[in-house]
Amino acid sequence: MEITANPLDCRAHVLKFIEETRVVSESELRVNNITPYHVTKFYREQITKSAYYEQLKYIVEPSVQEFESPGTLDTSGEHDNTVVPGLQHKYKILDHLLPINHLSSIRFGTKMLAYQPRRFEDSALPALFERILKSGKTPIIVTHFDHVGEISCDAEHKVRALRAQGVQFLNQSDADRLSRCTELKDLWSSLFLD
To answer: What is the pTM of this model?
Structure first.
């Protein structure tokens, strides 16, 4: 499929695809349901310095093949479930969850430990997790590390500190990729199972 930028569409983006750098018009992006991507400076430096960039680029860099993909950007149904920006119905407000007696844990899913672990230095987090613990529930953070090269020293430090506070961790990732990566399984054991 040959795709060219519409010369009448002056709003164009220069996007770095895995295969090549390409100028893409707003209309092309809209028609193909593709948004320009952004990777935090921290994450870009982490994966570049990790010696795994050739593997990790497939997680963060778009591919020209996405122009032919039947997928959707809204994989979690956010468009239909959003109460306010950033809050979906499936992630109900904590004050409404804590009184529910049959709940034994409150889970938070995030890739932020890979992208920007310093966000976990927020001074409100210890009190948040303490509220959950005092209610008799277990705070659980589900991380989304897909590769050992994504785990920075900052992320490891944050996981250990939060575990010492009583927060439990799970990781959600590509099972096939994890089964082939012994190095990652060993790190999970030391980080999450000590």
So the answer is: 0.66
